User: What shape does this take?
Amino acid sequence: MTKEELKARTKKFAVDTFKFLMEIEKNKAVDVISFQLFKSSSSIAANYRAVCRGKSDADFLNKLKVVDEEADESLFWLEFLKELEIKYNTVELERLIKEADELVSIFSAGIKTIKSRNNKN
Assistant: This one.
């Protein structure tokens, strides 16, 4: 997957998450969770753009770690929502969970690759 494809994929995840959140049941507690999920999912896309402008392996790695953490946080909030007894689109939530899990895997693998390459030098 190219950087441009991953930029588009992370942005799509943020947009899809926002659309999902606009459709779920609203109450004070869910609003707090929704805000956290919106922040973390949009942060993946925004910070991945910064990763692509990394000036060195160390800069790239540090920024990629932030993206990985935000993807994992998004996965947490999606899984958290799944356990609540609220109204949501089950199929869409499962799709978003799968995508968040895949993004965590992609970014974690990238971090491991960079670390192993740096350890060889």
User: Anything to note?
Assistant: Helices lie at 3-23, 28-51, 57-83, 90-120.
